Amino acid sequence: MRAAVMQGKTIDVRTLPDPEPGSGKLLVKPFYTGICGSDLSLRKQMAEAEDAVPAANRDALPQIVPGHEFCAEIVDIPKATETAFRVGDLVTSIPFTHAHDMPQTIGLSPEFSGGLASLTCVDAVRSFAVPDGLETDLAALTEPLAVGLHAANLASRNKGPNVVIGCGPVGLATIFALKQQGRGPILAADLSPERSAIAEKLGADLIVNPAETSALDKWDKLGFTPSMMSPLLERDFRGLPPGANIFECTGVKGMLDQVVTVAPQHSHIIVVGVCPHQETVTPLEGIVRELTIEFSFAYRPLEFQAAMQSIADQPDLARLFITSRRPLAETQSAFDALAKHPDEIKILINPQA
Fold first, then answer.
1. Domain encompassing residue 39
2. N or C: which end of the chain has fewer CB within 10 A?
């Protein structure tokens, strides 16, 4: 098979042995594979690993075939795999599988190659049929949109308003999910005018540039009045104090502390952006205003399926996420473009081209 292989700082297309699906697996042919922020983080880690070893030892660095967001056609089903799927079916798959010691993510593991290849393997039990008529490039958006749907579903404490900080793929997916659920108003904040424009098309009611104004002082424009600091200030308090939902989708260092410091009373903060570094917050800031901080990870299987159906229901909106489609040979340049150009949101690679 042909595959984009990440090793150290390099991503190049190589010919590798075809994967052999074991029991419970499906051998699939990816049509479109999205590049995720997790893939960019992996590349950074791989580059740091190359810098940490002598040049003579770099050939021994791990080799990873990235890609965990894809739509594919089933080309083989082992006899030992019990499934209702048939060869030729189109599927999207939850990219998690079991290793001998712990679960791993397909496309982020040296052991389980991903969708930036002409062939790969997925778990039959974690695969879902693509609805009739849904285009394969749109179906490849299921995984990232499921991340946004899960974040929106976690925000169950307050009706709104909703503030989404960061309009990368995760932030936009959250806006998409909130809008499909009829939840508003929605304020979106991002430095990029291109990403902000897409947030508005997806249904955000108010757009702000955080370089010019804070996203967390526009409550009057959202028709919301923050409650008093404590119910103790009310003579006869009943019920849950009104609060806002704040989605931190950037993962930028220091952002969580900024949100905790200025969030209005009783806000529900959902941390969605990948944040691999240490963060410092002052607990008292959250205590006196009874803030809730919740961390969002991936999604549930039913949310994955629901996200795919939402794409089928709103294909024109889902199509806004895709900013370019490229052949497998351009994988490295696609990674570079995503890292450098904020106007790029979701680049899809066609491993068959």
1. 2-129+314-350
2. C
